[in-house]
Write a structure and sequence with these properties.
The complex is a heterodimer of chains A (500) and B (99). Chain A is an alpha/beta fold and 500 residues long. Chain A contains 17 helices and 11 strands. By secondary structure, chain B is mainly alpha-helical. The chains are: A alpha/beta (500), B mainly alpha (99).
């Protein structure tokens, strides 16, 4: 029964719980046992507390017993990225500076998971303050890719992607600032979505780059991702950049999944020589597949995308240097060297030097440089102008096509340690995902096969205009069902797969 | 090639309130130089009178109703403080000895 539960899709599990075939407590127990059995080898979670999990599950069972109508994901477990505040669990953003911190409030996403009856299994590992593409920047532990445990699970939401790929959770949350959901989803063979900026609330998300940070879902299939997307999205008066509009009909789109007559644009700048051969091969096969399903595929150019990575590595560090100024050792978090002889400024500087890891320091320094007088116009100002050009390229493209597509990442999962000492090589992992963060439009990664040379998953990225998230799910569902029909279930070839 | 001197890195570290050690200053001088050289591409693309975008959304002055809602209690707000005295955050000295 345990393997039955763990092998089920979230949609099916929710149905089984509603119909009383299985209880939320049995479900939570099955997943807790699974975590205990495999997480020593994967390292997806930073915090799991059995009793807290079981309490949440029993509350769902009590609601059902009292005759309450449950939602589609009530009783379904979810792994929660440690960047979201949680009242009943520690929240560290994988940083020493927040070691042991218990937030006094829940993030809006956390609160909505609870309202929908989802059972939060624990907090997942990540790159410290969501800065990185491999989860190697965590201050606490290494997380391994279930497809090949010598490889990274992507990042920054690598604990979440590893948890779902290792069947230690059916669903997970993430945040995507430059690709931190789509890139780990791609390299772990999962569906991961970055909603339209402002479509999901940032309240209670420990800030990295506020104009880019976007919470979103991870799942093993398109419909499950859509159900989670719908469960926590929508307007939040506590987030001033939240969009006051209905949540796009992503669940309906995921169930529909037809692409007949849809105009698909292939972005010339997001493909080419620097890309791994097997990634390109699977990407181009998927384009042919879409054509065979009735889509019209055209190539087009978004010239400013060539400068998107550069602009991102000025804008994101600039915002981070400002956001992370709040870690001042005064009101919460770590305080170092307060022995009565040192001034507040000295204590602050010592605390930050000990509490932040190398990548966070590097980005704070870079942002401080880009924002300082004398350099502001040349760096931050120019980057903001590039941001305008990127938006214009998207607007022009979406006049001619319904969605844009590209590989999600230039390569499959790289080896642990391979890029750790080379920041620029690490930053290249986000090449294809960054433009959608800069423009704020909807974007999603869906698996499109395994690269022939290494047998590792390849992601297919679908980008749609702001508030047209449903289109990304529609195309993803079409790709998923056609590929499953042709090749069988992709995820079952992962060594950590559990088949129900 | 954008070169960053060790002195400039030390100055940035002071502005950033980071007490970096000697080896960190050396490493960062080299790395920041490399990164700035790579990202200087924005200067080739951003020419003329292109308006800057600070944000993805065209939102300005978003207000919510001025209504009192539930907030944190004094104890909840202070619970994670590194040092507390008389229900206040205790901080190291802020003024110099002579002030």
């Amino acid at each position: 029964m345990v393997s039955d539960i763990v092998g089920m899709t979230a949609a099916r599990l929710g149905e089984a719980i509603r119909e009383g075939q299985v209880s939320a407590e049995e479900t939570a127990t099955a997943y807790l046992d699974r975590i205990e059995a495999v997480d020593g080898r994967i390292g997806a979670y930073l915090h799991v507390d059995r009793e807290t999990v079981l309490e949440q599950a029993r509350a769902v069972d009590a609601r059902r017993a009292a005759g309450e109508e449950l939602g589609p994901l009530a009783g379904v477990p979810v792994a929660h990225k440690d960047v979201f505040t949680t009242k009943d669990m520690p929240t560290t953003s994988a940083s020493r500076i927040l070691e042991g911190w218990r937030p006094p409030y829940d993030a809006t996403v956390t609160a909505r998971l609870r309202e929908a009856g989802l059972v939060i299994l624990g907090k997942t590992n990540m790159d410290e303050f969501a800065m990185g593409s491999s989860t190697e920047n965590s201050a606490y532990k290494v997380t391994r890719n279930p497809w090949d445990t010598d490889r990274v699970p992507g990042g920054s939401s690598g604990g979440s992607s590893a948890a779902v790929a290792a069947f230690e959770a059916p669903l997970a949350t993430g945040t995507d600032t430059g690709g931190s959901i789509r890139q780990p989803a791609a390299v772990c063979g999962l569906v991961g979505a970055k909603p339209t900026y402002g479509g999901s609330s940032r309240y209670g998300v420990i800030a990295f780059a506020s104009s880019l940070d976007t919470p979103g879902p991870f799942a093993r299939n398109v419909l499950d991702a859509a159900l989670l997307h719908e469960a926590f999205s929508g307007h939040d008066p506590r987030d001033s950049t939240s969009i006051d509009a209905p949540v796009p009909q992503v669940v309906e789109a995921a169930r529909r999944g037809d692409v007949e007559g849809l105009r698909v644009g292939v972005v010339k700048e997001l493909d080419g020589d620097g890309f791994q051969a097997g990634v390109r091969q699977r990407f181009h096969e998927t384009l042919e597949l879409l054509e065979s399903l009735g889509a019209k595929v055209v190539e087009l150019s978004c010239p400013s995308f060539d400068a998107a990575l550069s602009a991102y590595y000025l804008i994101a560090p600039s915002e981070c240097s400002s956001n992370l100024a709040r870690f001042d050792a005064m009101r919460y978090g770590l305080r170092v060297g307060d022995d009565g002889t040192r001034s507040a400024e000295e204590v602050m500087s010592l605390t930050r030097a000990q509490g932040f890891g190398p990548e966070v320091k590097r980005r704070i320094m870079l942002g401080t440089y880009a924002l300082s007088s004398g350099y502001y116009d040349a760096y931050y100002g120019s980057a903001q102008q590039v941001r305008t050009l990127i938006k214009r390229d998207f607007d022009a493209a979406f006049e001619n096509v319904d969605v844009l597509v590209s590989p999600t990442t230039p390569t499959t999962a790289f080896s642990i340690g391979e890029r750790a000492d080379d920041p620029m090589a690490m930053y290249l992992a986000d090449l294809c995902t960054i433009p959608s963060n800069m423009a704020g439009n909807a974007s999603l990664s869906v698996p499109c096969g395994l690269a022939p040379e290494d047998g590792l998953p390849v992601g297919f990225q679908i980008m749609a205009p702001a508030l047209a998230d449903d289109r990304t799910y529609r195309v993803a569902a079409a790709v998923e069902s056609a590929l499953t029909e042709r090749d069988g279930d992709l995820l079952s070839r992962n060594p950590y797969a559990v088949t129900g | 090639m954008t070169a960053i001197t060790r002195d400039e890195v030390a100055h940035l570290a002071r502005l950033s309130r980071l007490a970096l050690d000697e080896s960190e200053l050396d490493t960062l001088a080299a790395q920041l130089g490399d990164i700035l050289t790579a990202v200087a591409k924005v200067q080739e693309v951003a020419k003329g009178d292109i308006p800057p975008s600070s944000h993805a959304l065209p939102l300005t002055n978003v207000y919510r109703p001025d209504e009192v809602g539930p907030g944190l209690t004094h104890e909840q707000a202070m619970a994670a403080a590194p040092a507390v005295e008389d229900q206040r955050f205790r901080v190291p000295r802020i003024l110099g000895e002579d002030e």
